[in-house]
Give the backbone structure.
Amino acid sequence: DSYFSGAELIKNTNKLANYNLILLDCQMPEMSGLEVAEYIRNMNINVPIAFSTDYYDFTIKGYHYGLVRYLVKTETAFRDNIIECIKYVKSIKKENESLSIKVDGVIQKYRQSDIVWITSEKHYLVFYIKNGTDDSWSCSEIKARIRFEDISESLSSSFLRVHQRNIINMDY
């Protein structure tokens, strides 16, 4: 989506949390990018924000609002910097996506990046969750009474159904 001004953007408060990235210009009509970023953070909306500007003057103030990138328009690599910014936002989003699974009556959250593979056994799904951060393939098995169809929309694009009974995380 694009907006003519910062004021126009914040009129759509209900949409702000649904964005994957908000790219603000520091100098916009009605409200500056800094004012918009401050508004977004005061609303406790934790969406990644990047600033685009012609000047370095706003750098320190901008990072006060948790910016993911500061893009200077006059740099020859501006297009490449935007692409890199989008890739970075995708990587942090992917790393933090979670899947809620009800196990023995208790809802537990698991990072999708830790799920190696999911298989079906009778009326259950078995989730193989990677243990630790090392390169070993040690996994915990989590068994839950869920159907593939009930979780398939929640899984990130890293997951691929390779068989009627198996979904794998392509990152592994």
Summary: The helical segments are 6-10, 13-16, 33-42, 59-63, 78-96, 148-151.
